[in-house]
Design brief:
196 residues; alpha/beta; 5-stranded parallel β-sheet; two-stranded antiparallel sheet; 20% helix; binds pyrazine-2-carboxylic acid; binds zinc ion
Length: 196
Amino acid sequence: MTAALLVIDVQNDFCSDGALAVPEGEAVVAPINALMEQYDTVILTQDWHPAGHQSFASAHPGKAPFETTELAYGTQVLWPDHCVQGTDGAAFHGDLRTDADLILRKGFRTAIDSYSAFFENDQKTVTVLHGYLQERGISRLTLVGLATDFCVAFSAQDAARLGYDVAVDLNACRAIDLDGALDAALTNMQSAGVSL
Ligand code: VGL
Ligand code: ZN
């Protein structure tokens, strides 16, 4: 069984002073760099939004960050503008090793957010990740990165549903923890069969 390390969204905007700062976000960098040694295949994801993305509160007059709205596919949390394509905030943290096999960008369709590295938030539109992993014969995944309760949790649950053997290394993750989202995410991951 071949294993891959899936490093979720270790980008400046999710670190201290970033536009959508995750408390202690940068603390994941050193443990992740060390973990990369143990995997033949390393995949980085990069949240990569066009300006005016529909997950941004600024795209919805009268709405503030962290409120929700109804989009075509359901309820969406509205975020501060973050990870805008080509900006410094969208770049990987400067100390993160980027000598990866694959860098997968997601969230680039204006009308659909993408927490998961496998499916966008409409739960229908696929990224190329499942096909890539299948072509490479990879059946075991370890997930690390930001944020535990959003992109890490959605990716891990989709991976488990797709039949991968999935672990999340919580030492190398940090959470936004919006309204108890971390506890809910940990419970949901465990129910989906993810090892924590
Ligand atoms: C993320 C919210 C919005 C994440 C990305 O990487 O967890 N969270 N965009
Ligand atoms: Zn985003």
